[in-house]
Design brief:
The protein contains nine helices and no strands. The protein is mainly α. It has one domain: Tetratricopeptide repeat domain (Serine Threonine Protein Phosphatase 5, Tetratricopeptide repeat). The N and C termini lie far apart (about 55 Å).
Length: about 180
């Protein structure tokens, strides 16, 4: 029980450090928390912390470490059948791919993450993921795909019927929607 409390306390401290933008200290605390959860046999919490660690690595510009931590987390989430965890890890891996220039795979992973968020009813994360996809597509000059992704973000959000109707006009004219 003491290990669990220590791991949970370390994770809370790591989150505090991350929010304070003390990234190197946050990395160390997340690594300790992950080791603590692993030592107690709590694979789900260890994977969740690995996902958090991956996010910190991305913010710190340490993309190879981010990719490794996120891939490790994804493997555990898949083994456990944790669809929400899979979606989070896949979405975070998409960010790494986007930053390393692997745009095609980033798009595929953003789309897959959004679909998984939809599957588990996490509409806010689904919306955020489609918005990230739309922004990336805009940067690539893929206007229609960006418009379609933004439309899906609005659909996940609910409401905004007038804006959605307006955005769907060019998609319908081109037979995309």
């Amino acid at each position: 029980m003491e290990i669990a409390v220590d791991a949970a306390a370390l994770r809370a401290e790591a989150m505090r450090l991350y929010q304070a933008r003390s990234l190197n200290e946050a990395v160390a605390a997340f690594e300790q928390a992950r080791a603590g959860f692993a030592a107690q046999g709590n694979a789900a919490q260890a994977a969740s912390v690995a996902n958090d660690l991956g996010v910190v690595y991305v913010r710190a510009g340490r993309l190879p470490q981010a990719s490794r931590a996120l891939s490790d987390a994804l493997a555990v989430f898949e083994k456990l059948g944790d669809v929400s965890g899979q979606a989070k890890a896949i979405g975070n891996l998409a960010q790494v791919m986007d930053r390393t220039g692997d745009k095609d795979n980033a798009e595929k992973n953003f789309t897959r993450a959004a679909e998984l968020f939809h599957q588990v009813g996490e509409r806010g994360l689904e919306r955020d993921t489609y918005r990230a996809l739309s922004q990336m597509q805009l940067q690539r000059g893929r206007w229609l795909e960006a418009l379609a992704a933004y439309d899906r973000a609005l659909a996940a959000r609910g409401g905004a019927d007038l804006l959605r109707a307006f955005l769907q006009i060019p998609l319908r004219l081109l037979g995309i929607h």
